[in-house]
Amino acid sequence: MSELELAVEDEPRKPNQSGSLCPAVKAADMIGDKWTLLLMRELFMGANRYNAFQRALPRISPTVLSKRLKQMEEDGLVIKKSIAGEKATEYRLTRCGRELAPLINYMSKWGLRWARRRMNEEDLDVGTFMWDFHRTLNTAELPDGETVFSVSFQGLDAHSKWWLVANGDVVDLCTDDPGKEVDLYISAPLAALAEVWMGDYEVSAAIKDEEIHLTGAAYLMRTATQWFPKSRYADVRPKRFVGEDASA
Fold first, then answer.
1. Tens digit of each residue's pLDDT (9 = 90 or more) over 4-60
2. Is 47 helix (H, G, I), strand (E, B) or coil?
3. Which CATH architecture has domain 3-118?
4. Which residues are registered as beta bridge partners of 78?
5. What is the spatial distance between Cα 234 and Cα 248, in angstroms, rounded to a whole number?
């Protein structure tokens, strides 16, 4: 992240000063911040603790995360609850927050359809990607018991190795070797794996083109198209503007 991005993200969220009574303006004042939108997405995906938000959004600073959660609580989007017998707290959606689910869902689809051409390698963060990647693993297609994956990213100096430990419906993401026997090794450039995850590149084609390398259990290699993680929006295709070169 650049110094400019760091400076901007640490600025406090300023309330809209338009003087308008328009409900859309007031709504944008509550949820028009990128971190608020991303935190709402995580809440809808099941995250509810501070450390889970940090893992899902590694680019957000602790200061900004705390500020946004506090503001969301003040705006009535979430409530903060203590957990019996623990020092930790949880954030739970209110009715106000829950009603945003269709909007967040539609904004995600709209963004992939119309803003996809603006995405580039700078939008790829390996930590954020792996968090999404591990929770979209299709565990229903894996064998019973524990299945361990090792994911290596070609060309990355830092955070180039990750492990997924799947057991039933639970998938743990590890940045350190869990010390378990690996069933399948996955090696690929981050961009290629992201293309497959987003539905822009078929798993079978990426393997055939040797963009993705699989090594390990024959069954897992043979059934990769069935269990391989895919974005919930993988079927959303980008639209092109009138006159835009289709080959671009």
1. 233 334 445 555 555 566 888 888 888 888 999 999 999 998 999 999 999 889 889
2. coil
3. Orthogonal Bundle (1.10)
4. 93
5. 20
